[in-house]
Amino acid sequence: MSVRTSAYASDALTGETVDVVVIGGGAAGLNGALMLARSRRSVIVIDSGTPRNAPADAMHGFIVLDGTPPTELLKRGREQVRQYGGRVVFGDVTSAEPAAPTLDGDLRFEVGLADGRTVTARRVLVATGLRDVLPNVPGLAEHWGHGVVHCPYCHGWEVRDEPIGVLATGPASIHHALLFRQLTDDLIYFTQGTDLDDDTRARFAARDIRIIDTPIQEVVTSEDSGIAGVRLTDGTVVARRVLAVATRMRARTEGLNGLKLPMEDLPDNMGSRFASGTAGTTEVPGVWVAGNATDLTAQVGTSAAAGALAGAHINAHLTTADTNTALKATA
After folding, report:
1. 7: how many CB neighbours lie within 10 A of its CB?
2. CA of 325: how far to CAs of 105, 108, 313, 319, 321, in Å?
3. Looking at the whole model, is its pTM more than 0.85?
4. DSSP readout, 94-120?
5. CA 148 – CA 95 distance, rounded (Å)
6. CB-CB contact of 294 with 280 (8 Å)
């Protein structure tokens, strides 16, 4: 699922080599850019305008900013990055790869955009986020971010006490159901062909979680354009107002093959991410990764913090490189 937000005024590219190019204009990318810009680093953020939470009306679980519309958070974030001299460019990255280093050994990277423009940078921060892959159930995608939710911490309070249905996608859905049970007394678990052993069925029964093994044929829309329920393959309609789905989450990798960043698959078919170490470091020298691209379960606050940490780490590495260059110049 990807929803593009409205285009906004884009900064110009000057053609000069910058200290850091940030690929991704969400919470992680903008906070990383903010830390770098405040350290007087030249930084450019390339933003495709397709944040994961675009369909949502508000973000939650982020102290002080709880309830803020995602678009407002990003708008303010862009303004703050620009306040310190950073630039934000609206565009799609189609290529990114190492370039020839300088004579003194400092790294260089070339990033190409869909419109033909290019950016040369000393370091790269990948903050592309992830893409949620929903089960192939007719009508499900249309309600994504509203009647169809995935995170009990992001959306749980807003759907409390509603009749909720959990659509199983794998082993992770079992824990998912128990978390949503905390929020409502009316919960149904639709197995959707997944295995559910006797012990789990007993645990669900103890928590008054109903189980339906008949597969779902489609989601039924209500007169108010919300969810009325689901129609099973036997024709039965089960009333539900909210559907919770543990999506398969995949880091957004478009245009990044040239960086040759290692990927990792998560257990239980939960998804795939960029592998990273401390502060978002990767096996590729000069490239860091932050946010949902490497931490699939990170919420907005966690992603922003990861971006800040990566930004500070990049600045420290650049400081060492600058010092080494200055030392060689005096030799």
Report:
1. 10
2. 9, 15, 19, 10, 6
3. yes
4. EEEEEEPPPTT---EEEEEETTS-EEE
5. 34
6. yes
Strand partners, 221: 227
Q: What is the secondary structure of 168-182 as a DSSP string? A: --STHHHHHHHHHHT
Kindly give the residue spans of alpha helices, DSSP state H, lying in the chain.
27-38, 70-83, 152-155, 172-181, 198-206, 300-330
**What's the CA gap between 49 and 126, in Å, rounded?**
15
The values of phi and psi at residue 306, to 5°, are -65, -40
DSSP 144: B
SS3 255: coil
Q: Is 170 left (phi over 0), alpha (psi -120 to 50) or beta?
A: left
How do 148-149 and 242-245 pair as beta strands?
A: parallel
Could you tell me the two tokens for 223?
């007169």
Query: How confident is the model over 252-275, as pLDDT tens digits?
Result: 999 999 999 999 998 877 899 999
Query: What percent of the chain lies above the pLDDT cut of 70?
Result: 98
Per-residue pLDDT of 13-27, as tens digits, reads: 988 999 999 999 999
DSSP output for 150-218: --HHHHTGGGTTS-EEEE--STHHHHHHHHHHTT-S-EEEE-TT----HHHHHHHHHTT-EEE-SPEEE
Helix 300-330 and helix 27-38, axial crossing angle in degrees, nearest 10: 40
